[in-house]
Amino acid sequence: MVRPTLLVGALASLALSLFTRATLAAHHPASEPISPKVMIITGFTPEREIWYPYNLTNDYPMPGFIPTYQNVSCTASDEICVMTMGQAEIGNGIAMTLLWSSPMFNLTETYFLIAGIGGVNPRYSTIGGVALARYVVQVEMGMAFAGSDLPANFSDLYFFPSFVTSPNQYPSLAGTEVYGLNGALRDKVASLVAEKNISFADNPTAQAYRSKYTYAPARAAPTVDKCDVASAEVYWSGEVYARNVEYYVDLISNGTAKYCNTNEDDTGTMAGLLRGAMLGKLDFSRIVIAKGNSDFDRPPPGLSAYQNLMEVAQNGFEICLQNLFAVGSTFINDLVANWHSTYKHGVKTQNYVGDVCGYLGGTPDFGPGHC
User: Fold this and answer.
1) pLDDT at residue number 30
2) Residue 65 belongs to what domain range?
3) Burial of residue 166, with CB atoms counted within 10 A of its CB: 0-12 exposed, 13-18 middle, 19 or more buried
4) pLDDT band at residue 15, thresholds of 50, 70 and 90?
5) Contact 80/74 with Cβ under 8 angstroms?
6) Which residues contact 241 (CB under 8 A, 6 or more apart)?
7) Nearest alpha-carbon partner for 223 in 246, 196, 205, 244
8) pTM of the predicted model, to two decimals?
9) Function, please (predicted)?
10) Is residue 2 in some structural domain?
11) Exposure of 202 by Cβ count < 10 A (0-12 exposed, 13-18 middle, 19+ buried)?
């Protein structure tokens, strides 16, 4: 999630950035299927622009993509590509389906780097940091009461799983609630960043805002954290809503997921990728989620939820983008350099990879084990 006050400045540069891209890249018809080593998935212009140092000279038009971002842009060798989907779960699921169903691409060996920004849970990480996720949880498939309608036994948990009579019951599932990713691949990316001893960007305003929190992770300097993603179209701020999300993530994942990053699109992206994997178009174990933390999802002591969301400058936006590129490029550079020795045949993992229903085979180590 991106704070509303930050979006204004980010979107103001849209026309200029698109004009600049037009002068750098050319449309190229693909004579044979393109087989990228990595597809970088972004949501909007600032997330896309950080990858321009890779000199994305080849633009491939994608019919059906939203008009603002109609091309998949790749390096001259087509090893590294970037796509931009917009910010919405439904649109992202459609965009991913358009991608893997296109005869222009062969994605069977492609790694997917989902690289974006979002809010951050101060109990587990901080602004400017980067989250590497193993679990993606959808915080939308549920039921709700509001205000005085909330039953006494629900203890302020106004959002709860579908078709239950108390908030601690596990729900029936639609299948999009939880996705598990390749833990070994996630750990490898974290190890690469540690080995490179990356210097993370920071600024005095972000440091000052962190100091207002009592949680140690919130007060710490930016780094990489191995924690999970909560995805919803609702943009929340405040302790009440955030605690409700923590409860739901814990319940729906059987205690395995701990969300630190919030965003509006990842479960849609996961749903689209899962369908492609079910049809053999891509490998679901080749997904990396790296999310920059732009703003806290609840205020520090002394400030209101409204002030945290609408008024206070946290200054995490620019530094989290810089740090996202530092982390993502470390992975990409290693992938290209060591493709045949390390990545071509996949990174093996011991954990279950797939959705909560087990549609790709195997038994999920979260949820009920079946739908």
Assistant:
1) 56
2) 14-22+35-355
3) exposed
4) very low
5) yes
6) 298, 305
7) 196
8) 0.90
9) Nucleoside permease that transports adenosine and guanosine.
10) no
11) buried
Which residues, other chains included, contact 49 with Cβ-Cβ below 8 Å and sequence gap of 6+? 17
Q: What is the pLDDT of residue 11?
A: 36
Q: Are strands 38-42 and 111-120 parallel, antiparallel or unpaired?
A: parallel
We report the CATH number of the domain holding residue 219 as 3.40.50.1580
Per the CB < 8 A criterion, the answer to whether 136 and 289 are in contact is yes
Distance of CA 340 to the CA centre of its chain: 27
Sign of CA dihedral 269, 270, 271, 276: positive
How many structural domains compose the chain?
Answer: 1
Is 4 domain-assigned?
no
Residue 225 lies in a domain: yes
Q: Give residue 127's pLDDT.
A: 98
- The pLDDT of 12-40, averaged and rounded, is 62
pLDDT (tens digit per residue) in 332-351: 999 999 999 999 999 999 99
- Collect all residues with Cβ–Cβ distance below 8 Å to 289 and sequence separation of at least 6: 114, 131, 132, 133, 136, 181, 229, 266
Residue 79 DSSP label: S
370: in domain: no
pLDDT digits (tens, 9 = 90+) for 271-315: 999 999 999 999 999 999 999 999 999 999 999 999 999 999 999
